[in-house]
Amino acid sequence: MARRAPYRPGIVFPAGRDRNGRSKNLQWSFDQLNELCDRYAHGLSDYGVEKGERALMMVRPSIDLIAVAFALIKIGAAPVLIDPGMGRKAFLQCVSEAEPTTMIGIPLAHIIRRVFPKPFRTIKRAVTAGDRKFGADTLLKNIRSDRRDSFPIAPTTTEDEAAIAFTSGGTGIPKGVVYLHGIFRAQIRVMQQDMNVAPGEVHLSAVYIFALFNPALGVTTVIPDMNPRKTAQVNPAYLVEAIQTHGVTMSLGSPIIWKRVNEYCRSEKIRLPSLKHIFMFGAAVSPNLVREFSDIVENGKIYTPYGATEALPLTLIDEREIIEETQSLTEQGAGVCVGRPIGGLSARIIQISDESISEWNESLSLPPNEIGEIVVRGDVVTRAYLNRPKQTKLSKIKDNRGGIWHRMGDIGYLDDQGRLWICGRKSHRVETSQGMLLPIPCEAIFNQHPAVARTALVGVGEYGRQRPILIVELKRKEGATRKQVTKELLEIGEKYEHTQQIKTLLFHNSFPVDVRHNTKILRENLAIWASKKI
Q1: What is the number of structural domains in the chain?
Q2: Which domain holds residue 285?
Q3: Which of 121, 130, 152, 339 could staple 315 via S-S, CB 3.0–4.6 A?
Q4: Residue 441 falls within a domain, yes or no?
Q5: Relative orientation angle of helices 439-446 and 482-494, to the nearest 10 degrees
């Protein structure tokens, strides 16, 4: 991109606000960004970082984060990316499993390294992204070389390790996902060909990690003024300001972000005509949100792709199909449709099991409209977890043609049109003496009550004899009493066969959610809470 469009903005980053409250920004062209990558690559190489090493990156979202990540990739080293908000114990375990040899982090990261040295035992080089070393060997600004010539890019292959990205740990311990250069290449191809991301677009990067794809796509990155660890608290006015100021054409983000933006735009009577495509993902997306936001995106489309850290993007569906064909079914408890496979991906449904499957056989596949566990195979599917052979064995199925089927950990089905429907996480299923209940189909029934913000189905007790509990979070501005809502929800549940078993309701003021998207309900936590309440 530095050669093709040297002066096109590569990245726009917020730099505070003026006295009138308007955002101030730093802007780097692709040519400037590429030069900065080269300077860091020269400096890191001189510092001793080599091809095949892993570098733990604990740097706040910034131009330096982008530049250093690409500098490492130019060297042939693999950035290690961990969500800082996952909790100390989980974070330290992730560091230990990644076995990085270089650490580039903010001062707090180095303080943690000094207090808990064991997980960082493999670190040979420590760099602080700040003005004081805090026990590190040097500062990041000192690593940046004065050399401005092109750094000779390492001769990596599609089978070489490109990065380590950790899962959020929303349904268990975070796991390191090994990305190969071939997987990144396949993801870029899918974004270009199936998601229609074109050079020259402007991307509001509401999920910062996806900013790393933009330079390879020829897309300008606009970093929003928000705290990435608290997306549920985003100021929607700031996002709207960024969209209007920079002519943003696309954005990817969790449903909670677009819910906040939707409410703000509707209250202020704002339209966003520059947007061409919005991708909502991170949890099941409400069809109502898609329908309402489609009025604001006058000249574009809304899509709800499906995927996970281990494999993405996998499927795609647009607003027309959601509103016209699948919304009414979702509201009747059919699950949420996430569309058809893209990028040459294969998707199948198999019997639900908590045991490993050593080898794939097509006879494992269930027929259309039969609920089971979702498995996928394709070029964007990762092959293993880092230093987790047990989890790899449980999640991966070897194909006799050399491929890998990944067990998504989600329950769903394929309909007669080949569309994939999601019904909930496998670990969230409720197994009662009368059969299995699934979160998304059940919750969709109760979520239609005007006083209900959202619900969560959990099971208390042993599988096969669990007691189904519906936990309810009420809308704050509604005046309905809990007694009244309980009566009305139980009456609603009696109308549908798959919700008639639910007889116990509990109320919770604010559901716990995942760190990464602030959208996925932590039902494991709620199940523990519910067991103490009943």
Answers
A1: 3
A2: 185-341+349-424
A3: 339
A4: yes
A5: 120
